[in-house]
Amino acid sequence: MGKVIAVFNQKGGVGKTTTNVNLSACIAQEGKRVCVIDIDPQGNTTSGFGIDKKQLEYSIYDVLINDLPIEETIMHTDYENLDIVPSSAQLAGAEIELTTIQKRELRLKESINRIRDNYDYIFIDCPPSLGLLTINSLAAVDSVLIPIQCEYYALEGVSQLMNTIQLIKKSLNKDLEIQGVVLSMFDGRTNLSIQVVDEVKNYFKGKVYATIIPRNVRLAEAPSFGQPIIYYDNKSKGAEAYTDLAVEFLDLEEDVI
Ligand code: ADP
Ligand code: MG
Q1: Does the C-beta of 220 come closer than 6 Å to ligand 1?
Q2: Mutation test of ligand 1: which of 18, 146, 193, 213 has the most ligand atoms closer than 8 Å to its C-beta?
Q3: Average pLDDT in the 220-225 region?
Q4: 3-state SS class at 216
């Protein structure tokens, strides 16, 4: 049965989508069967895989609101072992529409259970908020992967993030775990970045990946070509870092088993 992981941090612009697209592509390249669910109305993960959001027949919106079986929304990407359930702009309205639906917090979980056996890993790209879409994601997953940007306010909002995880554990998902913390947008030329790494490691003892994602312009360019970094520029620092992160991630998973 596949493991389900939410890439979560309620702060925007910390590298959630970049990590989701690139880590999942690298894990798929390592031979694991991966599905990415884009539950962010912005749909940046969807376009990051080269899928045109305007041409979609169905999206995760139809699963959450119109009872469409999730299998019917799965699209194969251009890359081996890598499927996606796309997002659409309609999803912005789902936060409100969901409030009138029964068991509204568990809609996603029930759908994911239908496809869990088909994959080794299912990654969910969360929106930068704590609304019902995020709650659905946190209720549905085994663990959360937390990207943190190496910048001055890195730890601001982290206590709120941890409170949210605790609340979900108490109410909807008692087994929810922290998969790991990914430090992103590291700039080795600044003392600040180095200081942030220490602070975050101190806060999340033992949970921070040794692989740190550098600030790399190729990572910022790749989405406009609709390609994960390993296909856009495999020799870039960004490609190297996400490949290393995937290997580290999988090594740690094997240690657990
Ligand atoms: P989030 O999903 O948390 O809002 P994104 O992954 O979309 O964050 O990243 C925010 C912006 O920063 C995007 O424009 C993205 O291309 C850019 N970005 C993310 N990670 C890096 C990186 N390591 N180096 C350079 N730019 C990055
Ligand atoms: Mg995003």
Answers
A1: yes
A2: 18
A3: 97
A4: coil
Domain containing residue 148: CATH number = 3.40.50.300
ipTM of the complex: 0.99
Range of the domain at 139: 3-256
Q: Which pair of tokens denotes residue 80?
A: 């081996």
- Residue 11 CA, ligand 2 centroid: distance in Å: 9
Interval 119-130: pLDDT, tens: 999 999 999 988
Nearest C-alpha neighbor of 246 from the set 80, 32, 85? 32
Q: Which two tokens stand for residue 165?
A: 């995880």
Ligand 1 atom having least distance to the Cα of 222: 16
Atom 10 of ligand 1 has which residue's CA nearest to it?
13
pLDDT at 257: 54
Domain count, the chain: 1
The owner of tokens 């390592």 is 30
User: Stretch 220-243: mean pLDDT, rounded?
Assistant: 98
